[in-house]
């Protein structure tokens, strides 16, 4: 399987790709305010790269449940200086975490190669057209509702079947406007309109998404479902996050999105070494 993101190309099977999270926001659920200046965000991104990040995911708008939406101009003001600085310095591939096609367009022009889109459930085809035009990589994430409404009362008859049907629909819609399947990876969207049982069910059934024949990306890092499960705040969810990363790698997930690249890398590389020797 190939993932082509602009001029970058990964061929799977290969070691799990690590996507490091760089939130240039005042209000992200875990690291909000820590890297809110361009200097702090760039330094953090380069540190994640040193720790082993293959991809740096730069976001200027929190998508935590109930987050205040951010205007386009403000989001651009947050992310563009960071992308511009990293484009000249980072070896890692740059990803823009945005819901807005205009922000994605400016980010791609500034050096990003991947659009990480939590709002892939929108009707408007503008984002898809941008992907067809630019050949950028695309993370197609499943969300029920919007960040403002998604945790009010998430409901599914069969969460795995519904997320799988969403992926099928999206792959067809993207193909219809000229996006190549090789540009796209799929993310079941833990925490995006899912309660604890939905998230655990998706983790337990991850392998069912193999049938779409696209790489799978998973983001469990420090999420609130772990807080609900373990009764600890975001600052104390590293071990739970690593357990999810380990579980994902053993089930063949190709890309792990994490705030904690160094620790995740150790877990992932150790499991890969065991797996390649017939350990499971
Ligand atoms: N999770 C978050 C944001 N973007 N993108 C993908 N593809 N998958 C995820 O699971 C995912 C994501 C939430 O984490 P974070 O960016 O740390 O929080 P916030 O949205 O509050 O900035």
Helix and strand arrangement:
Elements: E1 2-5, E2 8-11, E3 17-23, H1 38-51, E4 55-59, H2 72-87, E5 93-97, H3 101-109, E6 114-117, H4 126-134, E7 137-141, H5 159-176, E8 184-187, H6 196-204, E9 217-218, H7 224-230, H8 238-250, E10 255-258, H9 261-275
Parallel strand pairs: 3-4, 3-10, 4-5, 5-6, 6-7, 7-8, 9-10
Antiparallel strand pairs: 1-2
Helix pairs in contact: 1-2, 2-3, 3-4, 8-9
Task: Jot down its keywords.
280 residues; alpha/beta; TIM Barrel; two-stranded antiparallel ribbon; 39% helix; globular
* DSSP E strands, number: 10
CATH class group = Alpha Beta
Through-space gap between termini: 22 Å
- Main beta sheet, described? 8 strands, parallel
Task: Quickly give the CATH architecture.
Answer: Alpha-Beta Barrel
Low-confidence stretches: none
Assigned CATH superfamily: Dihydropteroate synthase-like
**In CATH terms, what is the fold-level topology?**
TIM Barrel
Number of helices: 9
Q: What is the averaged pLDDT score?
A: 96
Q: For the CA atoms, what is the radius of gyration?
A: 17 Å
Strand residue percentage: 15-25%
Shape estimate: globular
Please tell me the total number of domains.
1
Query: What is the element string, with H for helices and E for strands?
Result: EEEHEHEHEHEHEHEHHEH
Question: Looking across the biggest beta sheet, what order are the strands in?
Answer: 8-7-6-5-4-3-10-9
The percentage helix is 25-40%
């Amino acid at each position: 399987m190939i993932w082509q993101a602009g001029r970058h190309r990964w061929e799977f099977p290969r070691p799990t790709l690590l996507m490091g999270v760089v939130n240039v926001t005042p209000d992200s659920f875990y690291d909000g305010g820590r890297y809110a200046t361009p200097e702090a965000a760039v330094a953090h991104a380069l540190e994640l790269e040193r720790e082993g990040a293959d991809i740096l995911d730069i976001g200027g708008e929190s998508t935590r449940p109930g987050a205040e939406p951010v205007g386009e101009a403000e989001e651009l003001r947050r992310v563009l200086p960071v992308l511009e600085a990293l484009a000249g310095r980072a070896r890692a591939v740059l990803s823009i975490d945005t819901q807005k096609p205009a922000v994605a367009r400016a980010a791609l022009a500034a050096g990003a190669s991947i659009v990480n889109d939590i709002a892939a459930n929108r009707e408007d085809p503008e984002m898809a057209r941008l992907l067809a035009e630019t050949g950028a990589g695309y993370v197609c994430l499943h969300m029920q509702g919007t960040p403002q409404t998604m945790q009010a009362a998430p409901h599914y008859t069969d969460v795995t079947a519904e997320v799988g049907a969403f992926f099928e629909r999206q792959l067809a819609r993207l193909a219809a406007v000229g996006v190549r399947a090789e540009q796209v990876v799929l993310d079941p969207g833990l925490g995006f309109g899912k309660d604890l049982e939905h998230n655990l069910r998706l983790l337990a059934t991850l392998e069912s998404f193999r049938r779409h024949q696209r790489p799978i990306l998973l983001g469990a890092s420090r999420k609130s479902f772990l807080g609900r499960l373990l009764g600890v705040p975001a600052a104390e969810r590293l071990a739970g996050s690593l357990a999810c990363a380990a579980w994902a790698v053993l089930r063949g997930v190709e890309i792990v999105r994490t705030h904690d690249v160094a620790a995740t890398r150790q877990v992932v590389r150790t499991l890969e070494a065991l797996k390649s020797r017939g350990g499971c």
